[in-house]
Amino acid sequence: MKDRPPREEGHSPEGAGESLLAQLDPQRLPRHIAVIMDGNGRWARERGLPRVAGHRAGIASVRETLESSARLGVEVLTLYAFSTENWKRPAAEVNTLMGLLREFIDKELQKIHEQGVSFRCIGRVEDLPSNVVKRLRHAEELTSANSGMVFQVALSYSGRSEIAEAVRKIANEVAAGTLEPGAIDEEAISSRLY
Fold this sequence. Notes:
Elements: H1 18-22, E1 32-36, H2 40-46, H3 51-72, E2 76-83, H4 91-114, E3 118-123, H5 130-143, E4 150-157, H6 159-176, H7 186-190
Helix pairs in contact: 2-3, 3-4, 4-5
């Protein structure tokens, strides 16, 4: 990984207090931060609001987290946004979540691109509605040459399904004769994960 650039004097994430930032050692910040989006529905319920209000508040948090991470020099931000378990939610809620994802891309993509952020998706993206997949692929293509922070969004994601897919790839390669069984090691597995 590349060395971090020194933090400019007075350069700070919006909303963060200078005294807090002065305590941060940029060299000790993590290079990769992963965030699991959870609790939006509970947040809304505790405030007497509909679940969609919680999901909208979650989008605002994503924006703040993305901007702050980029300013702090974090190299990779992974957002676990929609697990395979989320498909079990009521159809109306899933549709709302997909609508919020489309809305986020439509509103934020240009800004993400202008900030030099590279947008990527991991997970079973092909399981999502085609109008969402189209936007996601466009976002990946548009930002593919950007050299700033990598912003990954995990969609229709499950650690177990990721491992199962990697094992299937290996089995297919062994069956095709392009991979020797003795060559299956940690690196072989790791290189086939998302």
